[in-house]
Specification:
Largest sheet: none
Distance between the termini: 34 Å
Number of strands: 0
Structural class: mainly alpha
Number of helices: 10
Order of helices and strands: HHHHHHHHHH
Helix content: 40-55%
Length: 263
């Protein structure tokens, strides 16, 4: 969890206001081209995907991935004030999500409104077969999954950037990921079969029901990985520990406490 420290006393764990969420979305959209940044909803899912990893991931490792979905890096000439403000808001949201999962097992995800009557732009005549397949997979999604898809795509982005979570040999983790990924376009026969099974055995009544399942699933993942995430490695010594009254190993002939152990 990111918390205020003596080195960073201004860092707050207070969650963002609606105005700050809007500001964050605008700051992300101002990422220099040709980079393709996450939007506010995808970022929210990405941060949760970072938090539930089986190891603690530091800011300098996860932050760069929000600026380009394909792994591009910010130019060295980027506006420092823009980057500082964006980083501050992202850190606060990360801390608030972490706190919500640790203390309450709950958080309010950023889900964008979707106009069910909006018609997607038609594909160009020269669209590739891959593009046509992707469009068909998207069109097959119901309105609930279309609303949740950006958030889940952000979570999946974290899982691809940091594959330790998906690589854990735990059926409960695999099942939890399947419950999230049901809201992404199914591209393979296996994925389609999983989605059909979930829709049949665990149908979602409405968007509120789906959001509740999403949050509970992320909380489950946080619980499943907690022991590994906070595991402390036992320090193994190559040589026996030197007692304070033992001869100093430097060969001076003095006791360790009077030689190198006096510092």
């Amino acid at each position: 969890m990111i918390v205020p420290t003596p080195d960073n006393p201004r860092m707050s764990t207070q969650d963002l206001t609606d105005a700050e969420f809007a500001e964050l979305d605008e700051l992300l959209a101002a990422t220099p081209e040709p980079l393709q940044p996450l939007d506010a909803s995808m970022l929210d899912g990405y941060l949760c995907g970072v938090i539930v990893q089986p190891r603690l991931i530091e800011l300098d490792e996860w932050l760069p991935n929000i600026f380009d979905y394909d792994g591009g890096l910010l130019p060295e000439t980027v506006d420092a004030a823009w980057l500082d403000k964006l980083t501050e808001l992202v850190q606060r949201r990360h801390a608030a999500l972490n706190r919500g999962l640790v203390e309450d097992g709950w958080f309010d995800p950023v889900i964008l409104d979707v106009d069910e009557n909006e018609t997607p732009e038609p594909l160009p005549e020269d669209a590739t077969e891959e593009e046509r397949t992707a469009r068909a997979s998207y069109d097959a999604l119901g309105p609930i999954s279309r609303a949740l898809m950006p958030w889940v795509a952000g979570f999946q982005h974290a899982a691809l950037c940091f594959p330790e979570l998906a690589d854990m040999p735990d059926d409960a983790i695999a099942a939890a990921l399947a419950r999230l990924y049901r809201h992404l376009p199914a591209e393979t026969p296996e994925e389609k079969e999983v989605v059909e099974t979930l829709n049949r055995e665990h149908p979602l009544k409405d968007l509120d029901d789906a959001i509740e399942e999403l949050v509970v699933t992320v909380a489950d993942l946080a619980d499943l990985t907690e022991a590994e995430r906070y595991r402390v490695e036992t320090i193994r010594r190559d040589t026996p520990k030197v007692g304070r009254n033992d001869p100093c190993p430097c060969g001076s002939g003095r006791k360790y406490k009077q030689c190198h152990g006096s510092n």
